[in-house]
Specification:
alpha/beta; binds phosphoenolpyruvate; binds manganese (II) ion; 11 strands; single chain
Length: about 290
Amino acid sequence: MKSEKPDTAKDNTCSVPPKAGRKPSDGTIPVKVGQLVFGAKEIVIVAGPCAVESREQLFETARAVRKSGAVMLRGGAFKPRSSPYSFQGLGEDGLKMLREIHNETGMPVVTEVMDTRQVEMISQYADMLQVGSRNMQNYPLLREVGQSKLPVLLKRGMMATVEEFLLAAEYVLNMGNENVILCERGIRTFETSTRNTLDLSAVPMLKRLSHLPVIVDPSHGTGIRWMVPSLSRAAVAVGADGLIIEVHYKPEEALCDGYQSLSINEFDGTMKELDKVAVAIGRDIHR
Ligand code: PEP
Ligand code: MN
């Protein structure tokens, strides 16, 4: 009989940088944002509008998502829009509103920083700094947020491999900021039926290669409202430590990403489903 040779293929083909790449046997090292912990047994749901558009829009949406069980608020004040003619965000006025609703609801706030010159100002209002997909390889920005005391939500570049994603995180860690949370938000592929292809396989891969908590953005990951609930459930099932979901009190009137934003009712229903999936895998949704 012919003797079988062992299959020596590796379980990944990615080299990992020293700080972002975990040593064998290390688990996920939790990252705190205010009182919240990402990377523990409890899964953290971040929700809110794509962009802060008005007091009414932000406050009504924020109160509703809190009521449904979100524990952290998202909302862009500086928006990286593909077209320079699209709504660019309310800037510092939007940040002030985010702080105000934080004070009312207690939800920590994450908002995007697009430029090194904004880090100091945005840090006065935010609890976590978001580096967007388009800036994942903006090395000066990564170094700047690496010097911040605030945790960083690093979104995967739409054209970035897992290795490049971890190398981007390495820039932040190298500057002394150890509080990095990775966010899978979909990548560009040949598929055009969705806005992006949500690479859920990146979640277990990142969790294997790195000690950093991993969350999933099913809103940008699909770009389609009706797909967000099912991909949210799948993200929890595959091991995500949290989700960041776009919700709008009137999605059809949104100035940004309305077609992928859940209504308040849809978000509420999704949360109830997520509870069941979390329990099925031995975790809980933090409420
Ligand atoms: C966002 O979160 O609103 C956003 C712009 O996301 P991304 O950088 O992933 O496109
Ligand atoms: Mn958006």
